[in-house]
Amino acid sequence: MANNVFPPAETAYPIDNAHIDSLEAYQTQYAESIQDPEAFWATVAERLTWYQKWDTVRDYDFVNGEIKWFEGGTLNACYNCLDRHVEAGHGDATAIIWEGNSPSEDKTFSYSELLTEVKKFANVLKAEGVEKGDRVCIYLQMVPELAIAMLACARIGAVHSIVFGAFSAESLRDRINDSACKMLITQDTAMRGPRSDIPMKANADAAVAECPSIEKVVVVERTGDTVDFNTSRDIWWHEAMADAEAACEPEVMNAEDPLFILYTSGSTGKPKGCFAYHRWLSRLYVLYISTALRALMKEGNTWVEKYDRSTLKFLGTVGEPIKEPEWLWYYNIVGEKRCPIVDTWWQTETGGILMTPLPAATPLKPGSATFPFFGIEPVILDEAGNEVEGNPATGYLCIKTAWPGIMRTVYGDHERFLDTYFRRFPGYYMTGDGVLRDEDGYYWITGRVDDVLNVSGHRLGTAEVEGAIGQHEAVAEAAVVGYPHDIKGQGIYAYVTLMTGESASDTVETGIKQAVRQHIGPIATPDKIQFTPALPKTRSGKIMRRILRKIAEGDISNLGDTSTLADPTVVEALVEGRR
Ligand code: WTA
Asked: Is the ipTM of this complex over 0.90?
């Protein structure tokens, strides 16, 4: 834990522009937001345009996982993102600056231009039979069409479900089928560096072959590579848009109507479809880097220093704990000691940032997400579920009261929603993260306390990776744990037991990696595979991951109590075979 503190005055952040310009101002407003959350959030909601005001600000019950905000109110998220700015005379302001794969490739859209594109695509959706409440899967890289498609869905009340462009055909298929999407929006091939070698349309074709709910596939021409085209099902984006009308009234939506589904990895089984609701606006990923930082730092300073950084105002990080050396490099070299680093902590489930420094107000400590955002009440619980008072404190990071962005359910599986977030500590939202609160009240996220890995800022459930490894015909059983990795934050260490008669070889190892790429995607490829005759299990058959974690981390001096293992000699074999 770093002890350096960087007061806001040490940065050149233009304090005159700040909404919150001192730590005292933050503390006062934070206290108000916690004392009267309904008044606080009602004031925030007043900033949106409502067709009809709400009856009740907040109504929630963390025991039954029932959460409602602004019930009775009606609005449209797309209208609030675009129309109202255009109507207020800001149509010429820039809404999107898109940079492609090379610095020479970019596009900008003003609010008016974006609104026109969104209305046109909303008409394409309608013409192809998409109605309010239907699910639309979006499997695209970061291209402007992604934002246009999201907003168009919101405009007509369709529910969008975005699947990360690097996922495999099977991952895509499972997500489409889980929420029975009617349409898929994808692109021909995807760029990675200078090459267009991710076959997204081909992946989409393979997925859709096993997705009975998909009626139409819209294809964005990104690279111009030749792809298979099924004329009775597939539609080129540019052709459909050429004929589309640019008039489309937004649908009047209830505040609690669904807006989007976002799948994320959990500690067990298949990914969860997190449901977010209409009054929550689209999240914009303004300049965030996390894992990239470690990779960039290794390349030396010249790559950064050869570019003009004078227009940078502040720097963001998200997704994983950042260590002091990287923080200092980011601050000193990239930000030239002028730019505050805004380390934001949040989760797919939270629908927005829950902890963050405020650039002009919060003295920074390298590696800490600092303090809670307004209206967010973090608590630290011990094993028994008691709130740990005072500072310093460590334990499970939980949130005590509901905020508007929190997910509402796991799509189609409310029990799983309760099991994952609310049952371990009744009455609290359990984040799954461990945390330390230091003597000054700063929060330091220490990483996941459940079986979720964080590889290069991507969440993967150990069960998901184990399932993919198990698809290889030679594999009898697998257990996966994370270990510290210089670049990725966490690497994937897989322990694999083979079927009787099979023996470990480079071919089997390559085959296992291939199976994981095919079933999940390259991001989940194990970094290390250790073949082992058996896994350490308790007498009741539960794998003791604690031991596997220690061996993977190289911390074999104290493996703790192994007396409850069905066969304690397994551990020796594991230690000997360590990779
Ligand atoms: C981790 C990505 C430390 C954490 C935003 C959380 C972080 C998980 C931070 C959510 C941060 C996110 N510092 N750890 N600033 N931000 N995390 O849903 O473990 O992909 O639970 O959302 O990332 O991952 P998710």
From this structure: yes
